[in-house]
Amino acid sequence: MAKVFIYPATSLILSDLVARFGHEPLGSAVAIREHIQTPGFDSPPIQMTSDDPQKGLKWAAVEVPSGIRGRMSLYGPMVEEAEAAIIIDEPDLAFGCMGCARTNELLCFMLRERDIPRLELRYPTSKEEGVTFVAAIKEFLAELEVKKHE
Amino acid sequence: MSEQPVRIAQITCGAEYSGIQNEITTAAETVGGKMFYPDVALKDVKRAYKDFGLPVKSPDLKLAIARTQAIVEGRIEADGIFIASCFRCAEAAIVRNELRRYIVENSRIPVVSYSFNERTGSSTLLTRLEALTTIARRRSLMAREVQVGTTMGVDSGSSTTKCIIMQDDKIIGTGWRPTTEVLKSADEVVALALEESGLRISDIQATATTGYGRFLVGKHLKADLVQEELTVNSKGAVYLAGAQKGFATVIDIGGMDNKAISVNDGIPGSFTMGGICAGASGRFLEMTAKRLDVDITELGALSMKSDGGENVPMNSYCIVFGTQSLVNALAAGYSREDVAAAACHSVAQQVYEQQLQEVDIKEPVIMVGGSSLIQGLVRAMGRMLNTEVVVPHHSQYIGATGGALLSSGFIDKKKEA
């Protein structure tokens, strides 16, 4: 089993696919669940406090807008923890959307910088492309398992 | 029975990730408002984004466009709109500005826009959200055009405290003092205004307080109306300028922050409050006066002896750098008159660049507050906006006048009680 960072990190379909093939998906659900379940926080809706953008300084400079740094405080540790990554380019909003384009650019760059297996795919626009899309993800995840055992 | 909360639609793209969502919610609740996220379907997002025509990359900004369109088209009801995005985000700033413009042009829903960082606290947002809830809740009070009976308004500002007593639509007493101890200064200006009017405190039928010290002074004076300065100042400004009907723009360069308010029929439509630094406020002009060894009341006359001071390098983006420019200009041999005018020009420029971009400038442009008595500042603003700026009589008492005017609405209520 490998820890696979998914982009868009909000994608339930992608998260489910990774889990179905026996790996651990790293995405928004994990990061936000941890925040919500941490005792002592009371800042709805996702229990982030003004400390989080400051933690985000590890991945983005102080000139970077606070919303980006706040997001990076969620995703940064997961990117560092990831053993593989799947990046879907130009996804449909319904597939999973990441709110801030600048965060997304930084996130994808950080994933490309890491020396880990990475699958980058364009979001499918037809049924045929959809089949190929799922097959490619399946193949990537299956190979990941083999690599882990080697 | 308590009033229903004012429903304020939150159009933001990162407030929760900036860790300030609780601050926004708290500020709204403090002033009887309730923030809500307008719900829109996925198909609405796609349609709205396409209709609006502004190509943006961030999905949250596409969502913001759809939410705004749903409110403007009446599919979602909101009493006010709060648009905010991260400070320093160019894409969001463009969207924020265009959405604000779209709301103002296509609806009568009051809107305030703001750029936040992780340090934004509820106290910073309080006055802005209070103005939003006031406009939504007290439209009938805001529509008052004539003062009746004998009423008093006290404006407890950051630099000065002012009092106005009005009787039958006329100002009959004024009081002005620098703000030292909030209550002491308030008592002094009330005493001055009473003395000038020849009245006693028991003759006053209704009282309003506004400004930073409004809550404390309001409790002390048992005020009928305790109101933030954005709505009160805009009401006072259009009243004194005789511009109660139609559009107007009110600019108030204060001691600590500035207000730019777009008014329609005496009711603010959109407004902005703040400033990047004290260098864009009256505080910089106070420092200038001190450095030039003139009283602040003489700074205006001194600056008018220069033709504008545009040739003097001065940038008061930050009050420390501004002071540095001031000292450098004097050391370079520029005259005191030119430096005084340059300081006025610099403040006007900062207000123009930082704030007036956030409201729609519509004539007449009315300048109010103590700084409107500095002629050089009014001239600089007029040149910047290419218009004749109106400075009504008693412009330094604008908040107190607006308070006295609006509080007369409480006289009948008291009689009924």
Automatic annotation (TrEMBL), chain A:
Any matching Pfam family: DUF2112
Superkingdom classification of source: Archaea
Protein name: Methanogenesis marker 5 protein
TrEMBL record, chain B:
Annotated ranges, domain ATPase BadF/BadG/BcrA/BcrD type: 153-406
NCBIfam families: CoA_E_activ (TIGR00241), methan_mark_15 (TIGR03286)
Keyword Iron-sulfur: yes
The keyword Metal-binding appears for this protein: yes
Residue spans crossing the bilayer: none
Domain of life, source organism: Archaea
Record key words, sorted: Iron, Iron-sulfur, Metal-binding
Protein's name in the database: ATPase BadF/BadG/BcrA/BcrD type domain-containing protein
GO molecular function: iron-sulfur cluster binding; metal ion binding
Organism: Methanorbis furvi
Known cofactor(s): [4Fe-4S] cluster
